[in-house]
Design goal:
alpha/beta, Rossmann fold, seven-stranded parallel β-sheet, 8 helices, 7 strands, SDR_fam, SDR family oxidoreductase, NAD(P)-bd_dom_sf, oxidoreductase
């Protein structure tokens, strides 16, 4: 089987658990050297140990909040010091459990969600793109959400930030295309991890469509998203840019969910 990312250098943010960890593992298994970032130290260390158990490629951990410029600078210090280049950036870090009714918002809450979910993507993408331009190639993958196009109740700031990620993906793809830098996004939904929990065994046994919500009658896994990220990071998608892939089991195509029994 062809190894798709042999000796590529990849940054994956928000890699202490869930989707970010799944992508980091997949990329490492496929030959990439990875730099994993998060603010959760225990989870980040666990991700590093999991990678070392399945791959001989290099792995480095960066503990820091990449919505802050100085922390992005320290992240890229690792990249420049160890490799001198960046081939792939995966912008996965974000705040998902930010439920609050719009009438209960204040300016501080709004600014925090936008800083974590959107400003972080600008900061890391700008640094990565500046390095990628020198070599005239690179891949940037942004994690969007079904919330970019299908609204959640009590998640106005989150959905707004993810809608902005879709627009940011398209606009940066246009600006960076002449340097052969591809920018795409993935919009997941119903992916096991945080905050989506595995259904009880009795629900899984019954496989009631109304319980799953997805036409594929199952919940998604981090590996489902990681496989899509691998496709976008590899030469298999060399003529794709500015696109958003939905990885949601068909949740977003429904006019209405299955009726409850």
């Amino acid at each position: 089987m062809r190894v798709k990312l042999q000796d590529k250098v990849a940054i994956i943010t928000g890699a202490a658990m869930g989707i970010g960890r799944g992508i980091a593992l997949k990329f490492s298994e496929q030959g990439a050297h990875v730099i994993v970032n998060d603010i959760v130290e225990d989870g980040l260390n666990e991700t590093v140990e999991m990678i070392k158990a399945v791959s001989s490629q290099k792995v480095f951990a960066h503990l820091g909040d990449i919505s802050l410029k100085e922390q992005v600078d320290s992240l890229f210090d690792i990249v420049t010091g160890e490799f001198g280049r960046i081939d792939i950036l995966v912008n996965n870090a974000g705040w998902t459990q930010c439920n609050r009714h719009f009438l209960e918002y204040d300016e501080e809450f709004w600014d925090k969600v936008i800083r974590i979910n959107l400003k972080s993507v600008y900061l890391t993408t700008h640094r990565a793109a500046t390095m990628m331009v020198e070599r005239r190639e690179g891949v940037i993958i942004n994690l969007s959400s079904i919330g970019a196009t299908k609204a959640h109740r009590q998640m106005v700031a989150y959905d707004a930030s993810k809608g902005a990620i879709d627009a940011f993906t398209k606009a940066t793809a246009l600006d960076l295309g002449p340097w052969n830098i591809r920018v795409n996004a993935i919009a997941p939904a119903v992916i096991l991890g945080t905050p989506v929990k595995k259904m009880d065994d009795d629900i899984l046994a019954r496989q009631n469509p109304a319980d799953f919500g997805t036409p594929l009658l199952r919940q998604g896994t981090p590996e489902d998203v990681a496989n899509s990220a691998l496709f976008l990071a590899s030469s298999d998608s060399s003529f794709m840019t500015g696109q958003t892939l939905s990885v949601d089991g068909g949740l977003g195509i429904q006019a209405r969910p299955y009726p409850k029994p």
